[in-house]
Structure formats: C-alpha cells, structure tokens
Design a protein that fits this description.
The protein contains 1 helix and no strands. By secondary structure, the chain is mostly helical. The longest helix has 19 residues.
C-alpha cells in the first residue's frame, strides 16, 4: 500500500483489538459526551477514562496513553475532592 492510501480490506479479528472512539470529549455537550477531564457532561461524578475518549487509534497499543490520562484524571480528582 502506498503512502496516503486508505486500507479498505477486511481486518482479521486481532487487527481490531483496541476499540476506541465511542465517547468523544470536548467543551460542547451537543457534540461530545465527555468534558476535557473525561467527566460526562450529564452526570457530575461519572468519569470515563478508558480508550473510548480517543478520536481514533494509531498503529500501536494505546495502553500507555490510557494510563497517562488516568494519572492526569486522578490528579484532577484529588484536587476536586479537596
């Protein structure tokens, strides 16, 4: 496949092992599910910090990025609970 081409074939099951992108985050509740701290716009104490806040997935395992975001949200929650 040349650079710039989009893959349109069928992926094997192990090619879709990192599902992401089901809970968009942003400032506007009409276009996103989560705020920028991964808290739902509608429920004050519900945070979603798995890979669903990603807009898409790269070619690598997203686990380390998920962990880094979890640590960031953890710090936010500690500050919020003070």
């Amino acid at each position: 496949m040349d650079a710039g081409q989009t893959y349109t074939g069928r992926l094997p099951l192990d090619g879709v092992g990192h599902q992401v992108g089901t809970c968009r985050f942003g400032d506007d509740p009409t276009t996103s599910v989560l705020d920028l701290n991964c808290r739902t716009h509608d429920i004050d104490n519900l945070y979603i910090t798995d890979g669903s806040f990603f807009c898409s997935s790269g070619a690598v395992n997203p686990t380390l990025t998920i962990i880094a975001n979890d640590l960031r949200i953890g710090e936010h929650l500690i500050d919020r609970m003070k």
